[in-house]
């Protein structure tokens, strides 16, 4: 259950984009931050831990943390990070070339699938100069199309990260890996309408059991869990950031009735949609 008293809103940022260099930055606050912007922490050196949506992750050197809009996170006291922190909103991402859209969907539609990505030394060597160039652009004086230039660099970074995500960077030509990637791409674009594993299995020309086995092997989660994760993540975003009624959200996500949606949401979050929304109304969102 969320500690409402310690829940604070993300600070608003100019142009919906920010990048900062972390140099042994120490996080002493234990407050929970409700995320308005998608966040990427590229960690060169780090120690401590972070809690994201009630799940705790140990922080190590040479890794990436992904936190998506609508998630809630908090660093443990005295957590120390060196590297880069990047925050971007949906309106900024729209400036990025459309060819990178799938990468953003795969990484951030349900960030819980790829919350933490371990890096090899060679991976960090590839990512570090991209981040440095992006930081230089961000700190430079404004000029025409500056935001477009930064969005282009963000696109490159996102493509690199998508290919480093667990199960993506090994055996790219492996049959199971190809199926898993296609499954995630399908779910990312069709979960609003299609909730059944059978639908995706038929699209991929296999049985639901086979699809679930591949999904479990690649992510530790069955196909049904992955679909549900996408729906829950989007439900949380709609409850936090939209003025739509619970009934409207239920129908937008293709539930037969608001009651069916409420039962589904409570099953996976242990709270009702109404009570979840009240948390954010109480802190002024």
UniProtKB/TrEMBL annotation:
The keyword Repeat does not apply. GO terms for molecular function: DNA-binding transcription factor activity; sequence-specific DNA binding. The keyword Ribosomal protein does not apply. Transmembrane segments: none annotated. Residues 181-279 form the HTH araC/xylS-type domain. Keywords: DNA-binding, Transcription, Transcription regulation. InterPro entries: Homeodomain-like_sf (IPR009057), HTH_AraC (IPR018060). Pfam families: HTH_18. PANTHER family: ARAC-FAMILY TRANSCRIPTIONAL REGULATOR, TRANSCRIPTIONAL REGULATORY PROTEIN. This is AraC-type DNA-binding protein.
């Amino acid at each position: 259950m969320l500690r409402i008293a310690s829940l604070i809103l993300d600070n608003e940022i100019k142009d919906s984009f920010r990048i900062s260099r972390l140099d042994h930055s120490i996080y002493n606050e234990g407050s929970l931050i409700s995320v308005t912007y998608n966040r990427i922490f590229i960690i060169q050196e780090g120690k401590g831990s972070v809690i994201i949506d009630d799940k705790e992750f140990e922080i190590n050197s040479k890794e990436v943390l992904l936190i998506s809009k609508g998630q809630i996170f908090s660093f443990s006291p005295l957590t120390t990070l060196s590297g880069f922190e990047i925050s971007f909103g949906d309106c900024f991402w729209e400036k990025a070339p459309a060819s990178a859209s799938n990468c953003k969907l795969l990484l951030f539609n349900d960030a819980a699938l790829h919350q933490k990505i371990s890096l090899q030394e060679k991976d960090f060597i590839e990512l570090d100069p991209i981040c440095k160039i992006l930081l230089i652009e961000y700190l430079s004086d404004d000029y025409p199309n500056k935001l477009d230039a930064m969005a282009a660099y963000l696109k490159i970074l996102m493509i690199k990260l998508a290919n480093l995500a667990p199960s993506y960077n090994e055996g790219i030509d492996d049959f199971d890996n190809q199926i898993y990637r296609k499954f995630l791409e399908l779910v990312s674009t069709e979960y609003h309408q299609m909730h059944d594993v059978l639908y995706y299995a038929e699209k991929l020309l296999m049985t639901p059991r086979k699809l679930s086995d591949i999904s479990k092997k690649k992510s530790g989660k069955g196909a049904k869990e992955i679909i549900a994760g996408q729906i829950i993540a989007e439900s949380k975003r709609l409850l936090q950031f939209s003025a739509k009624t619970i009934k409207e959200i239920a129908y937008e996500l293709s539930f037969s009735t608001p009651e069916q949606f409420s039962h589904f949401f409570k099953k996976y979050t242990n709270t009702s949609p109404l009570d979840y929304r009240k948390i954010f109304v109480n802190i002024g969102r």
